[in-house]
Amino acid sequence: MTTRAELARLVDHTLLAPTATPADVAALAAEAADLGTYSICVSPSMLPVDADLAEVKLATVCGFPSGKHTAATKAAEAAEAVAHGADEVDMVIDIGRLQAGDADHTEAEIRAVREAAPAPTVLKVIIESAALSDEEIVAACRAAEAAGADFVKTSTGFHPTGGASVHAVELMAATVGGRLGVKASGGIRDWETATAMVAAGATRLGLSGTRAVLDGGTADGY
Questions:
Q1: Could you give all domains of the chain from N- to C-terminal order, each with its CATH number?
Q2: In sequence order, which residues have a C-beta less than 8 Å from that of residue 128 and are 6 or more positions away?
Q3: 140-166: per-residue pLDDT in tens?
Q4: Taken in order 192, 196, 197, 198, is the CA torsion positive or negative?
Q5: Which of 2, 7, 147, 187 is in Cβ range 3.0-4.6 Å of 110 for a Cys bridge?
Q6: Is 206 helix (H, G, I), strand (E, B) or coil?
Q7: How far apart are CA 122 and CA 58, in angstroms?
Q8: Residues belonging to the active site
Q9: What value, to the nearest 5°, has the Cα angle with vertex 144 and ends 140 and 148?
Q10: How far apart are the C-alpha atoms of 95 and 67, rounded to whole Å?
């Protein structure tokens, strides 16, 4: 059985609301330290973070939330984020290009971000799995692996088709075969859903209502 502390260590404690303030980010960092989460994830405009993160990692996003940015723009955004202290970057692919059958474009844009934010920066690739067919999910995961990403991630949490599903996480985990991590995010608002995602193969979770989930309640938001 997963313990509270074990689940917390899988969490990117997330605040991506457009109304977020520096004070909100400081509160997020303090809560992450209290809860023992792996990281906080904030918008790039909130970097650098003026808070003592101690052992808590700092993650941000690029091409967020639509993914309809050029590869060069995403790469520049990622490079700037790393320069401002980000340990991890979660990038959104252009899912329309993938759905049009252009997986080469997907791989190329991921590679551009990877080159702009090389290791040890952790690169996660958001594929909006709820909007994709199984075949498209597999293609996106293969492109991410070929381009040198570290994780594939289900969702932004902002797409109208929805967030993470057990089926998508299982398929993503089977495709990357342990060579990449799998982050489940979007719509994970209670302990049962969070642990189901872990059982399906998720190695990281994106949560905004982290305390409520860890306490066994139901969270609002991301």
A1: 4-214 (3.20.20.70)
A2: 67, 92, 93, 95, 154, 155, 156, 159, 161
A3: 999 999 999 999 999 999 999 999 999
A4: positive
A5: 147
A6: strand
A7: 10
A8: 90, 153, 183
A9: 170
A10: 7
